[in-house]
UniProtKB/TrEMBL annotation:
NCBIfam families recorded: MocE_fam_FeS
Keyword Kinase recorded: no
CDD domains registered for this protein in UniProt: Rieske_RO_ferredoxin
Upper lineage: Bacteria, Pseudomonadati, Pseudomonadota, Alphaproteobacteria, Hyphomicrobiales
PANTHER family attached to this UniProt entry: 3-PHENYLPROPIONATE_CINNAMIC ACID DIOXYGENASE FERREDOXIN SUBUNIT (PTHR21496:SF23), FERREDOXIN-RELATED (PTHR21496)
Species: Rhizobium rhizophilum
Key words, A-Z: 2Fe-2S, Iron, Iron-sulfur, Metal-binding
TM ranges: none
Stated name of the protein: Rieske family ferredoxin
Pfam families: Rieske
Domain Rieske span(s) in chain numbering: 5-101
Domain of life of the source: Bacteria
């Protein structure tokens, strides 16, 4: 079991948008869905190690800004080539106005 780490305030992320979070040498992204839920994945594309922080978020998918690979950010599943390896996902919880991830 990991430690809960504060990422940001809820209001820092608009619906269908994301925030990049770097912690102890790792990069994560936290995404706010159109359903107003929060999800966290590794922040680096599994295809060519590109930061996903500049990726497009739409319809429960994050698209890599380099080669347009897509992932379901709820599960981490690689949905479109060239990515074929899933993203790791991380537990998220909301406490008051704070978004926390368990890492």
């Amino acid at each position: 079991m990991g430690n809960w780490t504060r990422v940001c305030a809820k209001d820092d992320i608009e619906q269908e948008n994301l925030i990049r979070f770097d912690h102890e040498g790792r990069t994560f992204i936290v995404i706010r869905s159109p359903d107003d839920t929060f999800h966290c994945t590794d922040g680096i594309c599994t295809h060519e190690h590109v930061h996903l922080g500049d990726g497009l978020v739409m319809d429960h998918v994050i698209e890599c800004p380099k080669h347009n690979a897509t992932f379901d950010y709820r599960t981490g599943e690689a949905k479109r080539a060239p990515a074929c390896i899933n993203l790791k996902t991380w537990p998220v919880k909301v406490e008051g106005n704070d978004i926390l991830i368990e890492i």
